[in-house]
Amino acid sequence: MLELASLAQAERLRQLFTEAGYSEDNLKKLFGLVELPSVRERNVPRLADHTREPGLLNTLLRWFWIGVPQEAATIAPFVPAPITDLLVESGMLRRQGDNQLVPEVMVAPYEGFLMASHHTSRIDAGDRELVLWPNPTTKLLLRFTIRRPSRQTLDLGTGTGLLALAAASHSEKVVATDLNPRAVEFARFNARLNGVENVECLQGDGFEPVAGRKFDLIFSNPPFFITPGANFLFCDNPMELDQMCRHFVRQAHAHLEPGGYFQMLCEWVQISGQDWHERLGEWFLGTGCDGWVLKGSTVEPSEYAQRRIREVSNSTEHDARLYDEYMAYYRQRKVEAIHKGLIAVRLRPGENWVLMEDINDAPKDPFGDAVERRFAARDFLAAHATEDQLLAVKPRISPHARLEQIFEPSEEGWKPTPLNLKLVRGFPSSVGVQTLVAQFLGALNGSRTLGEVIGTLAAKVDTEPERVRKECLDVSRKLIEFGFLVW
After folding, report:
1. What is the pTM of this model?
2. Looking at the 3D structure of the chain, how many domains does it have?
3. Is residue 26 left, alpha or beta, with left meaning phi > 0 and alpha meaning psi from -120 to 50?
4. CA-CA distance, 336 to 346, in Å (whole number)?
5. Structural domain boundaries, residue 94
6. 15 Cβ partners below 8 Å, 6+ apart?
């Protein structure tokens, strides 16, 4: 049982890890990168070798990163007895025999938090209730989430509670739920360990633990794997194909305040004879929500099956049987491809819209503000739907916009390529522009209306003013929506 009886005990443990230098930066310095210990990667002996020198940091890393038991007499010079007792009382360590201290958790430092989870060895053991450490999908959702003031925030399927802890700084109250009782235990423990007091942890399936409650922000990294079985609670679910993700999208509106957002990572299938846009479009029908789907990678079923089998099993003994089961499941349901992406939903009265786009790569920095700006841009354009309304606006080029031109070698010397306008923050958008368009955009500094700038441009070119106005307005609408122009 993981438990810290008081905030003072949590503070003592945080001080211990801080004094030791137990941080992402030091893990990178020591190991070359933040590398998870893994039987499959055969890296445990090497990681242990890197921490062979006696000291407080190496002691903690051997326990809470690599998962190595240590003798009490060996660690006594670095960890005071009262701290060792506290680690045992909290459930982070277990005494074995007369002198051995065995780690019960892994502790991952991330974004200033110390996140306890099950150790990586549990996935090799096939522990169904495994609570996963902060992994790439968790970190992607953390970057994707909107971080604005919120009265009530919901972390649906919290795992270790990382997203709930991050949201606590801009939320009056955060509710963290999970079907896995062990995940709820870890989330509650991590909130106390990190000194966060405004997180409520509840156990239950989907939205059931928060029936009748509404939130300003909801985010979820659900068990979205599309597989024929349910090996792990953190990634598998018993529903058919992608129906778990569909269920969450269709249920979210009932738990959102007006203007509230629901954000989720998900996977969905492409069925033979059905456009995936049509499939996802149905998820939003009748919800009263606007929806934005950002499609990332796509894989065909055989590759997907191979990936998932490799993730859930470290033995090749059952590979052929598992592969046959996966492929029979996909073929019977006519699955042609499996897509991965992000979904953002907003509850809003009136006529709703659904936008579906491809993205090559998600931003490496937090981009929740860019998500919110995209919804705001569509609101702005809807409120300025007529030419006269848009012409009266005083837009300006985004401070994150950059105009670039590359010169290529040619027989005549350096040859200029077309101008390219791109954003260096938020979504990595880019668009080719002509020289006249670049000049037009450069004049948009917020001091003059769009109509005035278009009028100046029309006087300089040998083109009908009506055509100049129409083309400039078309360009402006596009660039406002994609964040190149702000108001």
Report:
1. 0.94
2. 3
3. alpha
4. 30
5. 7-104
6. none
